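PROTEIN DESIGN WORKSHEET
SECTION A - STRUCTURE
LENGTH: 191
TOKENS:
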């Protein structure tokens, strides 16, 4: 999938709805995506990947936020219009291909939610509901990805400026070795 800017403010993005049997549920999932942003200062609400749920679900996006003056790849989560959380992945470099992976696990036995972020095959951060307070994704009771957009935010009004390749979703948490293999060999089949 490639998103193009033809200098007339027309951008292409991809929107898809999964069948209920193939949706990524609130128990566990992994999103892996290759992207190269060409913008020197990406819009804070632009996203390379976004869930676009229409009900009271928590939305999930992979995009950008400026942190301490540095544009940073982030997971952006929002519950309705009332709560937004940012989970940094790694600093952004213009015109450089990056492999972004995000895993989410809900462990009902421990009542714990775990979000892990990876950049170019390496773990960068681990966020847990037991160590974080007041955040949308890790406190969500309902999380599902049935509809998603590649190349724009969840409202489809802020577009990712650059190229997108090899976007994949998995209905389980991949291991660090599997994520590294995807980054290196692009070798695991997704949903």
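SECTION B - SEQUENCE
RESIDUE ASSIGNMENT:
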């Amino acid at each position: 999938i490639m998103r193009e800017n033809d200098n007339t403010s027309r951008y292409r993005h991809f929107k898809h709805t999964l069948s209920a049997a193939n949706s990524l549920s609130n128990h566990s999932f992994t999103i892996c995506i290759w992207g190269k942003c060409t913008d020197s200062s990406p819009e804070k609400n632009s996203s390379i990947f976004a869930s676009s749920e229409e009900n009271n679900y928590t939305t999930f996006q992979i995009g950008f936020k400026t942190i301490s003056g540095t544009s940073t790849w982030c997971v952006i989560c929002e519950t309705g219009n009332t709560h937004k959380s940012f989970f940094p992945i790694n600093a952004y470099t213009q015109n450089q291909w990056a492999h972004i992976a995000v895993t989410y696990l809900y462990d009902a036995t421990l009542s714990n939610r775990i979000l892990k972020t990876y950049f170019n095959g390496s773990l960068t951060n681990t966020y847990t509901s037991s160590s974080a307070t007041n955040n949308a994704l890790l406190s969500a009771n309902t999380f599902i990805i049935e509809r998603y957009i590649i190349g724009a935010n969840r409202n489809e009004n802020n577009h990712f400026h650059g190229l997108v390749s090899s976007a994949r979703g998995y209905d389980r948490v991949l291991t660090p070795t599997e994520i590294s293999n995807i980054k290196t060999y692009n070798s695991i089949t997704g949903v």
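SECTION C - NOTES
Residues 1-11, 19-23 have pLDDT under 50 and may be disordered.
Helices lie at 176-185.
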